[in-house]
Amino acid sequence: MKWEVVIGLEVHTQLTTKSKIFSPASTAFGAEPNTQTAVVDIALPGALPVMNRAAVEKAIQFGLAIGAKVNQRSIFARKNYFYPDLPKGYQISQFELPVVEGGAITINVDGVDKVINLTRAHLEEDAGKSVHEGLHSGTGIDLNRAGTPLLEIVSEPEMRSGAEAVAYAKALYSLVTWIGICDGNMQEGSFRCDVNVSVRPEGQKEFGTRREIKNLNSFKFIEQAIKYEVQWQIETIEDGGKIQQATILFDPDSGETRMMRSKEDAHDYRYFPDPDLPPLVISDEWIARVKSELPELPAAMQARFAEQYGIPAYDASTLTASKALAAFFEATVAAGADAKLASNWLMGDVSATLNREELDISACPVSSSALAGLIRRVSDNTINNKTAKDVLKKMWETGASDAGSADAIIERDGLKQETDTGALEAIVDAVIAGNAKSVEEYRAGKEKALNALVGQCMKASKGKGNPAVLTELLKQKLA
C-alpha cells in the first residue's frame, strides 16, 4: 500500500520584548533560577495580569508580514491543565478569537514553490521549566520563563514530507528574525516546533490519527524525528496495530520518538474567557502605523535583487535567506563589486568558510568593502580565481576591513597574473612539446585533454598565468 504523509507545525516563537507578557519581570536569558519573576508569574492570590503592548505590536507585525487578517478584537482564554511548572493551574492563551487569522508562507523544495497556509497565530504566556540536573534524582522548578511572551504560529496540515516541514520551519524562522520579533536563538528555546504527523492511504481524504512531536529546537531534529515517526506509524498500521493520539518526544541520541502521554483534545483543556483580561482591541491607526514601519520583506527583496542586480532567482533567494546576508551583499556591490561575482563569492567560498567555522555573516572577518576589493581584482584580471581563493584565505586569517586589503597581499606576495602574451606563448610551446599524449587526444576530439594542458600551463606559470589567455593560445597552436 502507498501512504501519504500529513504534517502540520505549531511553532512557539518567543517575542523580543524586554518584559513578560502580563508582568514587568525581565525576559533576559540565563539568570539564576527564580530571580526573574513577579507576583503574576508565580500566581500569588490577587495578582492581576496587565497586557504588554509591545507583544501585541509584534503579533501585528507578523500578521501583516504573512498577509493575514489582524483581528481588531481578540479574546484571552484560560487553558486549564496541571503541571508543576504552571503555578496558576492554567495558561493564559487565545482560543476562539486569536489576534491573527490566516496568511501564508511560500516554501521551495527541489526548485518547486509551494504555498503553506496558516490557520492562526495567537499570543500566550510560556510556562516555567522543570530542572533535573544536579538534584540527585529530584526535580526543581525554575519560573524565570513563566510568563514569557509567545506567539504560537499554527499551520494547516499541508506539508507532505520532512523536507517540506523543514523548508517551512526555515522560511518561518527567516521571517520572524527578519522583522525582528524573535531573536531566533533555538538553543535558548526562542524558536521551537511541535510537529503533528499522521499517515493515510494514498487517495484517502480523511486524516489519519496524529501524534505530536514536542519541542524540537533544530531543523535537523525536525527532519530526523519526522522520518522515524512516519516509518513507525506505517509499520504499526501494516502490522495490524492502531495509532493512538499522543504527545511524543524525540530522542536525538537514539534517533527515535517515544510516547510521553496520551494527547488531549481542545475540550479537555476547558477553555473559557479569562475574567481578569478585557478583550484585546487594536485600532486602525495602530495597524497602519505598524504597516508603515515594516522593513522590506524577503519576498519583495528577492524580486528586487533579481531585477536590480540582474542575478538569477536562485541567487536572489539564497542571498535573502537572512537579513544580514542580504545587507552584506548590497554593501559589497555598493563598494564596487560586480553583482554576479559578489553573489558567487558569498554563496561559495565565503559561506563555506563561515559554515566550517560556525560563524554568522555578521561575524565575518572579511568586511564587505574588503571582499569588494578582492572581487575587483578578479574582474580586471589582476589575479585569477584560484589565486583569489588563496588571497581570501589570507585576508580571513588576519582579518580584513580595508578596501585595499587584497591589493596589499597581491603586491606583497607577487601574485599578479601573467598577461604578457610572449611569456605565456613560451610556456604553451613548452607544455605542448612535453605532453604529446594530451596533444594527440585533444586533436582526436577529446575536449578534456585541453583542460589537462591548461593545468600544466598554470603549473608552469606557478599559478600566475591567465587561464583564458592560455586556453586561447593552446587552441590556436593546436588547430
Please, how many helices? 15
Average pLDDT reading: 93
Strand content: 15-25%
As residue ranges, the low-confidence spans are none
Largest sheet: 10 strands, mixed
Q: Determine the N-to-C terminus distance.
A: 61 Å
Radius of gyration: 29 Å
Layout of helices and strands:
Elements (H helix, E strand, L loop, with lengths): L2 E12 L38 H13 L3 E2 L2 E2 L2 E4 L9 E4 L6 E2 L2 E6 L2 E14 L3 E3 L8 E3 L6 E7 L6 H17 L12 E11 L9 E6 L2 H20 L7 E6 L4 E7 L9 E2 L6 E2 L2 H10 L4 H12 L3 H7 L3 H12 L4 H18 L11 H12 L5 H14 L6 H9 L7 H14 L1 H8 L4 H13 L6 H12 L1
Parallel strand pairs: 13-14
Antiparallel strand pairs: 1-11, 1-12, 2-6, 3-17, 4-5, 4-16, 6-8, 7-8, 8-11, 9-10, 12-13, 14-15
Describe the structure.
The protein is 40% helix and 19% strand. It is of the alpha+beta class and 479 residues long. The protein has three domains: 3-286, no CATH class; 296-413, no CATH class; 421-478, Arc Repressor Mutant, subunit A, CATH 1.10.10.410. Strands 1, 2, 6, 7, 8, 11, 12, 13, 14 and 15 form a ten-stranded mixed β-sheet that branches. A three-stranded antiparallel β-sheet has the order 5-4-16, with no helix packed on it. Strands 3-17 form a two-stranded antiparallel sheet. Helix 3 links the parallel strand 13 and strand 14 (246-251). Helix 12 (421-434) crosses helix 14 and helix 12 packs across helix 15 (467-478). The longest helix has 20 residues, at 219-238. The protein is elongated. The mean pLDDT is 93.
